[in-house]
Write a structure and sequence with these properties.
Length: about 775
């Protein structure tokens, strides 16, 4: 048990204060003489001329249930009703064994009954309402256990306070007696418990709905809302009491109206609590919060279905419940137990299966009971209650005929409620296709897929991880991931992995495109420890097949965007380099030439020798500027391509720069190539130069062959690729070779044009570089 802080101690003291009035009322009833009757708690007790009484046991004095007491000892009940509010009037002082005369109204006639006061009938009261009293006490004990286990949990505090209020409010079972009106003290103790504590039960229920499992955001920013929530019902009741007091002729009518107002306030709290509960469930995105809510929902479902099947429906149809309300009240203990499990041990049981079975068989039982009662009642009315056994057999046969279809229909509806549309794969795939058609932005495709999967199948978490080199990176996710979620290496093609961790199992399905793993689909089960069924795995695999194509398209789009960004970056870098070379190199050189020309002109008439020296310097500087211009032009586009063409330029470079190192380079190409786009020529030339440079520096090769080929060169269709193949007989690539600047540059140049560049071992050893550059001409 944890230590209590100030707030927890305050809650404990308030709970004890709530229990004191109920205990005091019980002690007062046991210590005071009683007439053995009480005012009805569930019906109208206050009437214009008197109060209704219900004896708790058979009485020899003739007092009956439903009698209206209009006067006691010759004094009207209206006068006695004013006694608790008149502090100057002394209370009645009655003794055990004393006979008091009641004037009662029964069936329109007035009678005077001598009532002998005796002991308080506690045992008959407990026999009448033992279920409600026991449930309230058990509720308090369970919530006290939770409170002392988790005193720092706000929901535990509020539930403990509400359970203490419930126990205090069960003072209505003790009943308000005539002696409480005449003696004053009992009336006020009863009012404190059945009005003050009773309202607090429903206010605390609203408070719990606002904070459990997730707190309503405004409560965190505005603490005064909680104070207002607790004070407003009492303030409204007080205002209503004052307004009605001045407009009511009798005290008894005023008390009757107050009772109706309490019912209205209770209904408002219940409706607000239901709205808050729905909000809390929708706001609970994480699996833990949703699991906690499921426990509460399961408890209320069981309680409601039991009350409907065994209580309300039979009572409406047959006049009495199948089980007594005391027994049904014990079923209400599931609510505090569910709260205890939700707060302390929410991961202990498989709650989804429990909810599923409860919904199916609870609703099915209710339908069967209602149908049976309807058939029996209808046939009995038609045949004037003759042949009761035959009518029962007919009703039973009809129930048996409709049982299985109704059960199948209910099971399908409940499965759809809890598990989504897993039983209708076509609908899932169709909805996913519609969602993808409606998604226009490429960056919204993957989020739309995981959101559709999670919402359609009621999953707490779904994500898509795309392959980046040898690792996976989450590209889109919906919901909160389980704890200890790690991204694994790619699974074998076409297989699914299921990983177990503290956060539960995560099913991983590969996203394939043309036998290539482009990513993974990660889905978490609905509850920790719950595995996916084979049917669900097949459905998820079908979804993964569709998502693989979309993931590939998204990755291509991302690669295209990345390539565009690189192109823009490269263009701007090239512009900056040209600007720097022109501004810092060629510009100052030309400016210097201008100044020196002016100086030479000034010296021409005076000093011919100095002029000649200056002119020689100008010539040298001009040649240097021309060289800079040629270098800049060459960097923009190799001049050999314009002067010689692609194939002769490659041959010249191989003969001048590579063959001189002892390497024999052979260039195999068609006699003539058709005109190629400038970008293709530059890319082919640069890739070939980079490959030959690598061969000369690293391959230790004797021979290198460069092959250029163009399929259907004479009348090729648009888009046929230009293929460049460089093969050497050197040492080949090392096992731990990593792509350097040169290899990366070749791949990027090919990718910029939509082509490919592959580097690998040659057929007879050495290294082989194959680049394919598509040729697309504008029409």
């Amino acid at each position: 048990m944890k230590s209590l802080d100030r707030a927890a101690v305050a809650v404990l003291l308030i709970a004890l204060a709530l229990l004191l009035p109920a205990g005091a009322l019980l002690w007062l009833h046991l210590a005071s003489p009683s007439d053995g009757a009480r005012l009805p708690s569930g019906g109208p007790a206050w009437q214009a001329g008197g109060v209704v009484v219900v004896p708790l046991e058979a009485r020899p004095d003739g007092l009956q249930s439903g009698d209206v007491v209009v006067a006691v000892e010759g004094r009207s009940m209206e006068a006695w009703g004013r006694t608790p509010f008149d502090f100057d009037t002394p209370p009645a002082d009655w003794k055990f064994g004393q006979t008091v005369t009641y004037t009662i109204l029964r069936d329109g006639h007035t009678y005077r009954l001598p009532i002998t006061l005796g002991s308080y009938p506690l045992l008959p009261i407990l026999a009448e309402d033992w279920g409600a009293v026991l449930s309230a006490v058990a509720f308090l004990l369970v919530m006290a256990f939770v409170f002392f286990k988790r005193p720092d949990e706000t929901a535990a505090r509020v539930l403990f306070l509400g359970s203490a209020s419930m126990v205090s409010a069960t003072a209505w079972s003790f009943g308000l007696q005539i002696a409480d009106l005449t003696g004053k003290t009992g009336f006020w103790l009863y009012a404190v418990t059945t009005v003050g504590a009773y309202l607090l039960v429903w206010i605390s229920a609203l408070h719990v709905a606002l904070i459990f499992p997730t707190r309503w955001p405004p409560l965190q920013r505005r603490r005064w809302i909680v104070t207002l929530m607790y004070a407003a019902p009492y303030a409204l009741l007080a205002i209503y009491a004052l307004v009605v007091w001045s407009n009511t002729a009798t005290v008894l009518d005023w008390l009757n109206r107050l009772g109706r107002m309490i019912g209205v306030l209770q209904l408002v709290c219940v409706l607000l609590a239901m709205v808050a509960a729905v909000r809390g469930y929708r706001a609970a995105r994480d699996p833990v919060s949703r699991l906690q809510v499921r426990w509460i929902v399961a408890a209320f479902l069981v309680v409601f279905l039991c009350a409907a099947v065994f209580g309300m429906i039979p009572e409406l149809a047959l006049g009495s419940p199948l089980l007594s309300w005391n027994v049904l009240a014990l079923v209400g203990l599931l609510v505090p137990l569910a709260f205890a499990v939700a707060i302390l041990r929410y991961r202990l049981f498989d709650i989804d299966v429990l909810i599923n079975r409860t919904l199916v068989y609870g609703v099915l039982t209710a339908i069967i009971v209602a149908f049976y009662v309807l058939v029996v009642g209808s046939l009995s009315a038609v045949f004037q209650s003759r042949g009761t056994l035959l009518i029962s057999l007919v009703a039973t046969g009809l129930v048996a005929v409709f049982f299985q279809p109704v059960r199948d229909r209910l099971q399908h509806s409940v499965n759809r409620l809890l598990y989504g549309e897993r039983d209708d794969p076509y609908a899932v795939l169709s909805r996913l296709g519609q969602r993808l058609e409606a998604t226009l932005a490429p960056e919204a495709v993957l989020p739309a897929i995981v959101e559709s999967i999670a919402q359609t199948l009621r999953l707490p978490y779904a994500a898509i991880a795309l392959k980046n080199n040898d690792q996976f990176e989450i590209a889109a996710a919906y919901g909160l991931p389980p704890s200890n979620l790690t991204l694994l290496s790619p699974s074998p093609v076409g297989t699914a992995r299921q990983e177990r961790g503290q956060g539960g199992e995560v099913l991983r399905l590969p996203l394939m495109y043309q036998a290539e793993a482009v990513g993974q689909l990660l889905v978490a089960p609905r509850a920790p420890g719950e595995a996916f069924s084979p049917a669900e795995e097949r459905l998820l695999e079908d979804i993964a097949h569709q998502a693989g194509v979309a993931a590939h398209a998204v990755r291509l789009t991302a690669d295209l965007q990345h390539s565009r960004e690189r192109l823009v970056t490269a263009r701007e870098e090239e512009r900056r380099r040209l600007r720097r070379d022109l501004h810092d190199g060629l510009g100052p050189a030309l400016a210097s030439l201008t100044l020196k020309l002016d100086a030479a002109r000034n010296l021409l008439a005076r000093d011919r020798a100095a002029t000649e020296t200056l002119l020689l310097e100008l010539k040298t500087q001009t040649q240097s500027a021309i060289a800079d211009i040629r270098r800049l032009v060459y960097d923009l586009r190799p001049p050999a391509l314009d002067e010689l063409g692609l194939v002769p330029a490659i041959r010249e470079h191989a003969a001048r720069n590579v063959s001189a190192n002892g390497l024999r380079v052979l260039v195999e190409a068609p006699e003539s190539l058709p005109p190629l786009p400038a970008a293709v020529e530059v890319a082919a030339y640069r890739i070939t130069m980079e490959a030959l440079t690598n061969v000369a520096r690293h391959a230790r090769a004797h021979t290198c062959v460069v092959r250029l080929s163009l399929p259907e060169a004479g009348g090729r269709p648009q888009g046929s690729p230009l293929q460049i193949e460089i093969v050497d007989d050197g040492v080949g690539l090392p096992a731990d070779q990593r792509a350097g600047v040169g290899l990366t540059s070749m791949r990027e140049r090919a990718a910029e044009l939509g082509g490919t560049c592959a580097v690998g071992p040659g057929p007879g050893g050495g290294t082989r570089v194959v680049a394919r550059l598509p040729i697309i001409r504008e029409t």
